[in-house]
């Protein structure tokens, strides 16, 4: 029987806090059970296993991230939307490093299709890029460029990987400016 007060939502919220405090790799069933003062077995009526918990955490964090991005880009287009998108992404990654790490795990494609937050991520991202008038496969290539740039920058910044005297925020702003220029002058895939 499920312990009174334990819910999937409470477990995922606690796992999110734990991820930010100790790192995503340190989120475990045992650590979460200790946090609630229960035995590990008490959690298995709410989550199937560690992978299920981490997937739920990834979906939760992905929802938080896209909510922040959506609020930032609302009513904006072009470079202004790109800049707002990038800033919201970076702020979330730096404020919630464990949750952000959770958003990077590979999730079963069937779960992705059933996740309103992840569908919304695609809608918001592709919507933000609409001003650049890209069509497939260029649109997918552009999304991959943005994601890899934002992710790489945030991971390096959070690890203290930028040692030069240059202000990290100034470099970020330049990178976003360069991405805008790249998107405006995208090397289009030839028509068939």
TrEMBL record:
<feature type="DNA-binding region" description="H-T-H motif">
    <location>
        <begin position="28"/>
        <end position="47"/>
    </location>
</feature>
<dbReference type="InterPro" id="IPR025996">
    <property type="entry name" value="MT1864/Rv1816-like_C"/>
</dbReference>
<keyword id="KW-0804">Transcription</keyword>
<feature type="domain" description="HTH tetR-type">
    <location>
        <begin position="5"/>
        <end position="65"/>
    </location>
</feature>
<dbReference type="InterPro" id="IPR036271">
    <property type="entry name" value="Tet_transcr_reg_TetR-rel_C_sf"/>
</dbReference>
<keyword id="KW-0805">Transcription regulation</keyword>
<dbReference type="InterPro" id="IPR009057">
    <property type="entry name" value="Homeodomain-like_sf"/>
</dbReference>
<dbReference type="InterPro" id="IPR001647">
    <property type="entry name" value="HTH_TetR"/>
</dbReference>
<dbReference type="Pfam" id="PF13305">
    <property type="entry name" value="TetR_C_33"/>
</dbReference>
<dbReference type="Pfam" id="PF00440">
    <property type="entry name" value="TetR_N"/>
</dbReference>
<protein>
    <submittedName>
        <fullName>WHG domain-containing protein</fullName>
    </submittedName>
</protein>
<keyword id="KW-0238">DNA-binding</keyword>
<dbReference type="GO" id="GO:0003677">
    <property type="term" value="F:DNA binding"/>
</dbReference>
